[in-house]
Target: ABC transporter domain-containing protein
Amino acid sequence: MAHGSVGRILFANPIADVAGRHSLSFNEGTQVSGRECSRVVLSSARPAEWTRQNASRRSVESNGIFSNLKSNLLTRFKGGNQQSTSDKKPPIWPPAQDADESDQELTEEDDKPYVPEVNKDAELDESVLKEIASKGATEVRVVDVDKVFLTSQGMKRVVKNVSLRVEAGQLVALVGPSGSGKTTLLRMIAGLEPTSAGKVYFNDEDLTDVHVQDRDVGFMFQSYALFKHMTVAANVGYGLSTSKRRGKLTPEQIKKRVDDLLSLVQLSEYGDRFPPQLSGGQRQRVALARALATEPRLLLLDEPFGALDIVVRQELRTWVKKLQKALNITTIFVTHDQDEALEMADYMVVFHRGRILQEGAPFEIYERPNSAFVMNFISDPNVIPATCLAVRRSGYRTTKPYVLVRPDDVTIFYEEKLDLPTTPATVLEVNNMGPEVLCEIKYDDGVTLEFNRQRYDFEDQPLEVGQRVHLQLKPLMLKGFSPEDLKA
Ligand SMILES: Nc1ncnc2c1ncn2[C@@H]1O[C@H](COP(=O)(O)OP(=O)(O)OP(=O)(O)O)[C@@H](O)[C@H]1O
Model:
């Protein structure tokens, strides 16, 4: 659980203005000085990104004076993302006028305008789509699947009686903490790992004992898995010339297919390059082209964007989703990134200790998490004592010692509302985070709480440090928990 100290460190300093206009990515726990922070902010600035991110966020209605939005930024800011340093390709944007540029070490690269990773609005060639998506979408079912590994400590059951139905053409995200069994399930669906019990069906065909090569599945993994000594074109065409299709496709047909795929992933000019000559995002697009080359019935993506920096990842998410829909190819992807799942998936499956804890549309899961674990995993809630004044006033009752409160489930009023169970508090911090504002308040009993709001909510009547406010916690949005409930 990340209780946003990083956010406070970063924005309670003179660069708040700069930060307010740009996107950021930090690892949780990163200790930064104001100066370091300024540097990071400037190297990752790209205001254009804001509009789009903001538009894609999930809107949550509130009955107070604010409309609420769950903030991708908040989660990201509180450390949900791992930024690769090896493949980092920082987006460039001219530093803001009021930024302290004294310690900026600008390189030539910094002077170039930002070039998007992909053109998200590019028309997709219908004939190419048709050819690649020739098989039609496949429904996937796993029924009562178990996986037991024999380890040095004995038998380890890592997937426990899992059943799941993935509708044809859906984009499904498997999320959950590390070690919860997501990848193992993906590998069993692919045929890379045999099941210990249970069945795997594609449409109504039982593929449980069918070899991976005969399942017609395309893979894309975080680690690219491209052949470094082969050109991009050879990588993409590899499956075509080595699979059972050999003999079916002539070299000319293979070349045409490879050209089509490279055009699809917007890498037509890169066929002669070798993987080390590409950026991380480009390599992932090659990997995607290769995964699609054999016209798979199913696409399996394991942490596909995990090694990419946040801006490229954000762009590829949108683009991959658009492509997936255009191809109408059933796709299952594993991700650690809750925002990624919430944003991309049609359907989301939350894993915990080898079992499915909750599944459904991302919005439903976000709105109605069925446990403190799910709520904590997919959002980034505050933790407050169950006996504190605010919880008691809200009417929420629990036998658990703590309560989770999401930053966007708090309703704030400037005046006391006698007809509502509000609790008075003092504003401790107001941090401008671009389209959103992150605030911290302190109740009179000393309990602190963070919440986030759209910037425009504050335009008429800005919140100020030291100001008295009245907060309402909605009992239906609270979840009591004990520390062990949140353990991975
Ligand atoms: N071949 C194996 N032999 C023994 N144990 C394994 C093997 N593969 C995976 N495991 C164990 O199975 C459990 C589930 O692993 P899995 O990779 O499926 O989890 P995950 O949810 O995908 O985690 P992550 O997100 O970190 O990849 C882990 O405890 C892992 O150590």
